[in-house]
Design goal:
alpha+beta; Structural Genomics Hypothetical 15.5 Kd Protein In mrcA-pckA Intergenic Region, Chain A; Pseudouridine synthase; 3 domains; 12-stranded mixed beta sheet; 4-stranded antiparallel beta sheet; 7 helices; 16 strands; 31% strand
């Protein structure tokens, strides 16, 4: 059992407390609801309810107990591409098409199952835990940091909450992005009709900021670097759609094969060739910088493009 005190100042408006804390603390919504039902969470010094709609500058505090450790995740042998490891953290290059954490309909085969198996092989088991601090979408590849003990998990989680972590992504998007660099600053809210989807909103939702920089333009595509300053679900995908340049192969946000009809027949033939080499959202987390939870030193990690994205860029370079 992990005991933890929380004291948070709300930075969003218009969403339920249980959903807000689930995302902020990176634990399941059902687990948060159980904690709130025990009357251990307070909003502005009043006992909180899961259905409470948070407002900016609300103060959330209380004591929580978390069950998420090695004992609650089924260990399963999964190949892990470990970039770095010490006694406190793992840095992993997550492959595309793998889910980060078990959920409804996905009790196994996730990155967390693989980490649980890997850590159980360690000679020091007492305080080891599957400390998933942040997540990548199933189809997104790239760098993730995992805390190996309670202290590291708390420290790194706070770094993410305080926006002290630097993340950079490569993406291939539809169309030629005009400005060489820029910033997207919007609110993001869950879609009312499709609960797995998110939209930009003028007034409701959570603040979200993404910086972008052009790497190379092609006839119908742009190779771009994205740096999220906030960590909202699907943020980069939502922001690229909002910019008018959805990420290729991202059907949920208008970047799939439906885009073909907007172009001439010759271009469509080239698109079909490209889509043979990639069957997932063209998004890759290539850079990660954190402050080490124990040494307090800045540490940086950088990895190359995945083979599928390299093949797409090679085809575009040939054209």
């Amino acid at each position: 059992m992990l005991k933890k005190k929380i004291n948070l100042k709300v930075d969003s408006d218009g969403i339920r407390l249980d959903f807000y804390l689930s995302k902020k603390l990176n634990i399941s919504r059902s687990q948060i609801q159980k904690i709130i039902n025990k009357k251990n969470i307070f909003i502005n010094n009043h006992i909180a309810k899961s259905s409470y709609i948070v407002k900016s500058n609300d103060i959330i505090n209380g004591d929580i107990q978390l069950q998420e450790d090695l004992k609650t995740i089924i260990p399963e042998k999964i190949n892990l591409d470990i970039i770095f490891e010490d006694t406190d953290i793992l840095v992993i290059n997550k492959a595309a098409h793998i889910i980060v954490h078990p959920g409804n309909g996905n009790p196994s085969g996730t990155l967390a199952n693989g980490i649980a198996h890997y850590l159980k092989l360690s000679p020091k088991y007492e305080d080891l835990r599957v400390g998933i601090v942040h997540r990548l979408d199933k189809e997104t590849s790239g760098l993730m940091v995992v805390a190996k003990n309670t202290k590291s998990h708390e420290i790194i989680s706070k770094q993410f909450a305080d926006r002290l972590v630097t993340k950079k992504y490569y993406a291939i998007v539809w169309g030629r992005v005009l400005n060489d660099s820029g910033s997207i600053n919007t609110k993001i809210i869950r879609d009312k009709k499709n609960r797995v989807k998110f939209n930009v909103s003028k007034t409701l939702g959570r603040d979200s900021i993404t910086k972008y920089k052009i790497i190379k333009r092609y006839k119908n595509f742009t190779f771009i670097e994205l740096s999220p300053k906030t960590g909202r679900t699907h943020q980069l995908r939502v922001h690229m759609k909002f910019l008018g340049h959805p990420i290729i192969c991202d059907s949920l946000y208008n970047g799939g094969e439906d885009m073909f009809s907007s172009y001439d027949s010759n271009s469509q033939k080239n698109f079909s060739k490209i889509f043979k080499f990639i069957n997932r959202v063209a998004l890759h987390a290539f850079f990660l910088q954190i402050i080490h939870p124990i040494t307090n030193k800045n540490i940086k990690f950088n990895i190359d493009l995945t083979e599928d994205l390299k093949k797409v860029l090679n085809i575009l370079d040939e054209k």
